[in-house]
Amino acid sequence: MASHTLICFGEDWGRHPSTTQLLIRHLLPSQSVIWINSLGWRRPRLRTNDLGRAIRKTLQAGRGVRRPEPHLLLYTPLVLPWYRSSTIRRLNARLVSQSLLRIVRRHHISDYSLMTTYPAAEGVFHRFPNVRRLYYCADEYTTLPGLDPKLVRSLEDSLLQAVDIVIAPSRALHDSKSRLHSNVVYLPHGVDFDHFAAASHLLTPIPPEIVSLPKPIIGFHGLVQELIDFDMIDAIARERPTWSIVLVGRRNFDVVALPARPNIHYLGERPYADIPRYLKGFDVCLIPYRLVPRTLFANPVKLREYLATGKPIVSTPLPEVLAFGDLVEVASTASEFLVKIEVCLARQDAPSARRMAAVRDETWASRAADLRALL
User: Fold this and answer.
1) Pair (32, 87) in one structural domain
2) Rounded to whole angstroms, how far apart are CA atoms 23 and 37?
3) pTM over 0.70, yes/no
4) Looking at the structure, do residues 174 and 59 belong to the same domain, yes or no?
């Protein structure tokens, strides 16, 4: 492997195109990475999704270290999932640390850094005091469903004592963690600019399932989850029955009651490679998130993806959205959304070129170069 190796604790590799994986993928051409699949720190529940995932992770752990790409090693540690127990946490930290040392020796790695994308790795980080340690804080984890906020806070406080650098992709996270750590770096999300700019190309085909829908098409792409203001989606569809409201993305299994109207279309998850084709079919792009603590700390990846298409955008007033000024229309209520969507539809001098220019240089490759400098 290359001279320096990054050992990164993240979610399960390849499960979905997360921000960390997009960032790491742009490191791989010149950076060796050992990716440690999720330690599974949410409380396990007796349901099909959790049981199936537990079985898959056990099978992955049995395969040992894999090399799916020349500069990438994947490892799934076998850990006990009861993170509420301090005894279990110490045992897991010891077992994972021992496994890491064996991997490092087996692959003759002498120079490496540790990075984690969540606080549950804190016990491991305390066992490696002589290497560079980074915390990529992608969320305010105390606000995530399925996690105990007090436990998360305790684990994060411990992790912050162990790391040299905290990386925050939103200004709100940067400001929050700066009160707890002396070295916090703001590194906003990037965008696969050329990939999403394809939505502006004449020859990019619009998928048949939306090309025949009544226009205009008001669209959203991303996880269909409880953070979306579905009451607002329902009100928009009710007030404008001739519009087509399209949501492209995997449904979160916790979402039970979704508004059902003839002009609301849930298309489900589509391949990442095809997303620009769907975005080309949108007349206006939506970021309809509720203003709750989790979203106020967030930096939606879709914001830069939408901007790269040049399409008009209407969003709730999230802090990271406001930073782009008049390139994004902002609304807080359903009636305001209706007004701003109609403004976008009527505008003749749409600033599509300015939107694209605003993120043209904010690529994942440039973000990866910034991360490489920190390493």
Assistant:
1) yes
2) 16
3) yes
4) yes
Report how far apart, in Å, the C-alpha atoms of 146 and of each of 13, 39, 89, 293 are: 21, 15, 18, 15
Are 150 and 16 part of one and the same domain? yes
Strand partners, 135: 116, 166
User: Which tokens go with 208?
Assistant: 């048949």
- Residue 141 belongs to what domain range? 5-187
Strands of the 5-9 sheet, one edge to the other: 66-69, 72-75, 32-36, 5-9, 112-116, 132-136, 165-168, 184-186
Report the C-alpha gap between 39 and 303 in whole angstroms: 29
Last residue of a domain, one of 152, 187, 222: 187
pLDDT at residue 135, as a whole number: 98
Residue 370 lies in a domain: no
Residue 255 and residue 338 share a domain = yes
pLDDT in tens, 142-178: 998 888 999 999 999 999 999 999 999 999 999 999 9
Domain boundary residue among 132, 157, 187? Answer: 187
